[in-house]
Task: structure prediction
Amino acid sequence: MVVFFGLAAVSLLWETHAFYDARGDDSLYVLCARSLLAEQGYSYFGIPFVVRPPGFSLLLMPVVSIFGTNFLAWNLFVQSFSLLTIAAFFHFARHRVGDWVGLALCVVIWTNPVFRELSNRVLSDVPGAAFFFLLLLFERQARFRPSWRNHLFLGIAIGLGAYFRTALILLGPAVLVARLLPSPGQQRDPGFSERNSQDPRSRASAAAPSNPSIHRLGHRLGHRLGHRLALAGLPLIASFVVLAPWNLRNQRATSPHAVEHVLVHSYSTGMWHVDKGDPDSPRLSFGEVLRRIPVRVPQAVTALGSRLQSRDPEFVPMILGSAMLLCLVANLWRRRAPAEFFAFAFLAIVSVYFGFLERLMLIVFLLALLAVTEVAQSVAGLRMSETARRSLIVAGLLGLAIHDYQYQPKWQEIEERHQELVDLADFLESEFPEDAVLAADNGRHLEVLLDRPVHTLKNALAREGMPRVLDLLRKHQVDAIVADLRLELAPHLLQDHRPLRRIGNSVVFRIPKGPAPEGAPHSNAPP
Result:
């Protein structure tokens, strides 16, 4: 593992690019980090940001502070978490499948083109996966050295992890269920039982509670079952207590109206309202939410079967993804461990989620890949020796790694998008003064490069059409708009405005200022 980890670290020299792959939420993490550095709170465009917790932006703060707008530094920062993910995953998997098979699984993950792509983006997916497998290592420690301290530490760690990736809060209930429904004959992990069996202190710890007061509480609640429930529930309670300040802050900070600069107002609005950006829009019925299931489940299964490379349902990825889910089910039944309970809790949420991206399935994919390997080991063990079985599985995994590996995947496309943004930023800076008001389809990507506000127009266009966009232009006294010719806004603008400059797929328009509407609110206020 040390050799592989060293080679993986060296490979970052040619696996890390210096481009800005601005397609999703990358910009929001950076802009919120800048807002924190400027002592303006966790906010975007002057409005408190409530969609996701601030953990990843907090981690970005020192990187942004030291290196400024340096895309290579940002990407290397995320790449460091890809190394941590591999290391934590190996230490989790080795106790299930052995060192050599665990190492081969790490090679498959490292060469997966989507994992490599996500490791070069300023997103929390890869850091979230690293924290997840670290939490599973903490969970194992608490399971085999059961004490109130270890379980309390696990709960605090889960709560802190949820500040980086909200879904990690599901590990709290997953631990509780796993403790209450242990698998027969699976009380001890083979890798740990060998070490712990040699340690009389560990055997004593496993045999009796370490804290007399909790022991007495367990007897009052029903002897061993009560004690198990008290100890197992501690991580769940502690994790929610740790996350409580974020939830309380959001109750005070959330705007009751649509926020024009972000697509999703909050998780609650996204889940339960017709317009996921407007809490004033009509609420969805429970049946309407459940009607997402026939759409989301095939997308999730396809993402698994395609190894995160597609979400469009096709026959082969659907079959492969279904097989991976069956292996996860088999593992859930056999192990009843927190990892598998987490995977199916997460899948349940994804099945009714308001949106879907393949990268959302990263953690479940890693667990499903491990489950497939475990099932393959069990089946092969019926007819093969241990050496032959291990050799066959390692060879198959390495073959998959070779099949999937792509040298610098999509780098040319990413570089072209990056260069277009850089050229647009250079032109806007040369053509318009610093106090000029700028807008774009999706303003935050340009805002990262310009380091000044750029209004977003696509959300208003999607909600209320061009009349609402014109209202925003007058309200904010916009001087220039950058519109993507492939999106809906540009054709509308071309009807009435002559382009100032075309750069790549984007067109810059100079907007003649009309009178601002009377009593127009501040530009940072919600419409």
Observations:
- The beta strands are 43-44, 47-48, 438-440, 454-456, 480-484, 499-503, 506-510.
- The two ends are 55 Å apart (CA to CA).
